[in-house]
Structure formats: C-alpha cells, structure tokens
Design brief:
The chain has one helix and ten strands. It is mostly beta strands.
C-alpha cells in the first residue's frame, strides 16, 4: 500500500489487490473503526477468491469461495455484452440449462461491491 497527501479531504492511497491489480481509495478518517473496516476489506479480498466450475458445463455452474450467509448478484452475459441471466442469490450454484450453447461471461458481485468475472462455455 502506498499513500500521498490529501489535506482535509483524506489521504489518497493505492493498494495491490489479490489479483495483482492496483486500486485507489481515499482514507478519510483515522478512527480505529474505519481502519478496521479497511483492513477487513483488504483481508477479505485476499482470501475470498471465487472459482466457477465445471467449465464447460451443460446444466449448472457451481461457485467455490462463496460465503453462504451473504447475497451475491450473479449476472451472465453473452459475448455481445447483453445480460442473459441475472439473479441475487445465496446459493452456491446457478442453473444455466436454458442458455444456448456457446461462450459466456459471468460476473459475481458481493455486498461490498467486490467483483469477480470469468468466462465459461455452455455445452
């Protein structure tokens, strides 16, 4: 993590994510509660890696790394970028049997707004 000045609006910071990308955020408070929330979010990002399987699939996609007590928004897109299936779920799989054969993109978003995106093949 790195930071630079920001005056009374907070400190501009950068941190490396679990996937090796860098993200920017502004540290607006030095209260213990806020710091704990930021640390928990970073910790969650590094440990909550979602995997989607089997790939290719005929009937359903399963998710590994999902917290069963949280709701997730799961959206599937065709390769033209159109949403073909979207639902909010707490379950660890999604039925894709009604999709036509082809390549798709799946996006999973948790309650904190963290996104996981992958591709899969529907047989």
């Amino acid at each position: 993590m790195s930071s630079e000045g920001g005056g009374n609006k907070g400190i501009n910071c950068n941190r490396e994510t679990a996937t090796g990308c860098w993200e920017q955020f502004t540290l607006k408070s030095t209260s213990g509660k806020f710091i704990d929330e930021v640390n928990e979010r970073v910790k969650k990002k590094k440990t909550n890696l979602i995997t989607v399987y089997p790939n290719p699939t005929a009937n359903s996609l399963k998710f590994n790394g999902i917290n069963h007590s949280e709701s997730y928004t799961v959206t599937i897109f065709n390769l033209l970028g159109s949403s073909v299936l979207s639902q909010i779920t707490k379950i660890t799989s999604i039925d894709v049997s009604n999709l036509g054969a082809g390549n798709y993109i799946i996006k999973i978003i948790d309650l904190m707004g963290e996104e996981y995106t992958d591709t899969f093949i529907k047989k």
